[in-house]
Amino acid sequence: MKSFAGKVAVVTGAGSGIGRELVFGLLKEGASVAASDIDEAGLKETVDKAGAGDRVRAYKLDVADRDAIYAHAEQVVADFGGVDVVFNNAGVAMKGSVREMSDEDLKWIMDIDFWGVVHGTRAFLPHLIARGGGHVVNTSSVFGFIGVPTQSAYNAAKFAVRGFTEAFRQEMVVERTGVEVTCVHPGGIKTNISKNGRVSNPADAKAFAKSIDQVAMTSPEKAAQVILSGVKKNKARVLVGPDAYLLDALPRLLGSLYQPLVLRGTKRTLTRGK
């Protein structure tokens, strides 16, 4: 996909952050966009700011709801006549140790960050193939490369997205479907992800939000630009931000020895956040 002009794109998590900027970037490049989010107010703001008329449509969508995603795929195809590229971008954050977190919180983050990606991929795939090809873009994280204390649930989801997406890309080549696949690994991005996140211990909420803000090195606008450029180049993996390159390299160079370094860095970040 060398150009988005005239294409139909699907973007989940479009109510803010990277998702919102992906919508803006795609519209600027001539695409039509099906923008979705569970946050109706944020989604409306995205569409209003886009000012793109009927080239963008808003859909309230909870990506944790499998049936809703499949219904969404059918609705988008009915509204736009098909789909060419899918950005499974919606995601949430959570802080909690394995000992502290509840089963409910673990299920919540897995349903959104992992299963939302899986169902989004599978729901739209037949439509992409029917179109003669297309592109699926799944958002993992730099936490899909390394384990981080109090992030075991988030790590589990993002490692899973990475494995699922990398295997899926190879399958699409073997099966000659014409569908291209990219896995995105953002580093610290200046979004409101902590606002919609959860913490196992309410006393940690303020420190958690501050710690995320402190490591946010890249704007959502820049992140969207990097992602769209990577998709057009059919990159298997897109790293977003200088910290993403560092955290990708750590386990490659050090193996499991990266863990003491991450532990020390995490302790310093959490201390500054208090």
UniProtKB/TrEMBL annotation:
One Pfam family name is adh_short
What's one GO MF term for it?
A: oxidoreductase activity
- Give UniProt keywords alphabetically: Oxidoreductase
Stretches assigned to the Ketoreductase domain: 7-192
InterPro entries referenced in this protein's UniProt entry, alphabetically: KR_dom, NAD(P)-bd_dom_sf, Sc_DH/Rdtase_CS, SDR_fam
- Write down the Gene3D superfamilies for this protein, in alphabetical order: NAD(P)-binding Rossmann-like Domain
* Tagged with keyword Signal: no
UniProt-listed PANTHER family: OXIDOREDUCTASE SADH-RELATED, RETINOL DEHYDROGENASE-RELATED
Q: Which family does it belong to?
A: Belongs to the short-chain dehydrogenases/reductases (SDR) family.
Listed name of the protein: Acetoin dehydrogenase
Q: Which species is the source of this protein?
A: Actinokineospora bangkokensis
